[in-house]
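Subject: complex prediction, re-run

Hi both,

The earlier run crashed halfway through, so I resubmitted it with identical inputs.
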Amino acid sequence: MNASDAIRRSFIFSSLDEEQLAKVLTITREKKFHKDEIIMQEGEKGDSMYLVVEGEVGVSKSLTMKFGDNDFRQTEKVLTSFKPEDHVIFGEMALIGQDSRSASIIARTDCLFLGISRGDFIKLIEADSNLGMKILMKLSELLINRLKQSSQDIIRLTTALSIALNK
Amino acid sequence: MGSDNIGKYLSGITDRLREIYFLLKNEKFFYLLFVIFFVIFFGAVSLFFADRYYLTKGAGGFFDAVYWAVVTLGTVGYGDIVPESTAGRIVAMMIILCGPLILSLVTASISSILIERKIKEGKGLEPVKETGHIIICGWNEHGDRVIDGLLHQGKGASPKIVLISELDRDEVQSIQYKYKDLRFVRGNFVKEDVLARANLQRAASAIVLADMSSEGHSIENADERTIFGCMAIKSMAPKIRLCAELIKEENREHLRRTNVDEIVVRGESAGFLLATSAISPGVTDTIMLLVNNKDVNKLWRVPVPQKYIDATFGEIASYLRNKYGALTLAVVREEEKISLDDILSDDSTFIDEFIKRKFEESGKDFFGGRDDTAVTLNPPDDFRLSRNDWLVIVSKERPLESGIIGKLVGGAA
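This time it finished cleanly. Structure:
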């Protein structure tokens, strides 16, 4: 898969036409990571978004909070891995506002990424408002879906909690 | 045969040998053996060194002396070697006197081993192979009535009943004399191996009685044992229908936590019965007739006939009344319990996996147990029946028809 394919296939750029895609491609920067290198660390600040072009990445995310010495986080972790075919993007929340990373990403193999920094992204959407609107719509859709998913998760967790406590 | 099997076989043999060794040791068999060898050796040495051994007829070396001692001790006395000297004859007399004594001791110890084995192999220690049976755990003076109730509920197809208790042999025999098909497992029902011997995993239901089957069990600690027993039963077989008898009302909550399906507190209805009989004579008798195993009218639990699903209570009540002369008392509604899969989404996310894993890790059964039952006594005529409903009726015969096919012992009244 090449860089333009990766852009075309990813969800947030899926409504762009060829000309707009080419514009997006101009602000991307290729970035290589070696096997076992940490791409982002949960909780750290970050200001760019990544797309996987080549290689396999592992995502890990803590499911519990840290309480004093009682750190469940090492044991309560979710681990999934993604390949370029999954067309996943990482750190898209960093495009909207600077915030800490919500998951850690580690390169499982040598990887090639496309990175877009917030500065470049803001400049691009300010310059071309039609392009910006399309991307932001898709980005909102993504975030809405994620929010729905989270609400579902909360409901399942509270149900499970009440079952566990009612016994 | 794989090497594994051979290993198992060998370890089986060594276990067996060890068992025999301890049995013999228990009976002081080795001590006896030592005495026998001592007598033989003593006899042989005495004869050998006795005054003028050469006078002994047929005697050769020391081995002949040993041979003579064995033959004499064994009360065989071939007579091929005969002591002629006085000293030799004294030795002979001593051995002859010892002979029967020692032999009878050997016989006694062997026969006592055999008898003990016989008792152990006797009823109560063999694993039960029945399935779909009802297990009664513990025994007290009301045990007979429980078995009577179980046998009278299902006419035609008596349920298979297995009793677990620590009753002694005579008591068990007298119970088994009364109920021929009753299977017996001896042991403490709090222990999992005992429950496993009763094939608990494949039983239909279990009843835990306030246990007084052994002298060590007092009425004070009966509830404790009941609670422990219910915990063990529910942990081994979460789906089993479990009813338990309690002595003290205050223990109800503790027992409830073990996920038991039904709790009957002994004497809980006595107050009501006494008061009712004082104020409204006849009511108490009516109730007693209903719960009595002897009366012709019995309580039955029957499913709603197919064509009456979605009908009203009034319709089914008059139908059963006209056709079977049955009086419909109540509707039992079984509400399905939620399962873990009901909570989790179709496309399993990491949260689903987390929840699932956590429930599995806890090792407790949060979703087990039967469906909850809710009883509506004397519902209004327009009460709608549904698929999960059962009816409790009073009638002489169990109504049997194609629409009413039911488990015979679905619920003892």
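The mean pLDDT of chain A is 83.

- K.
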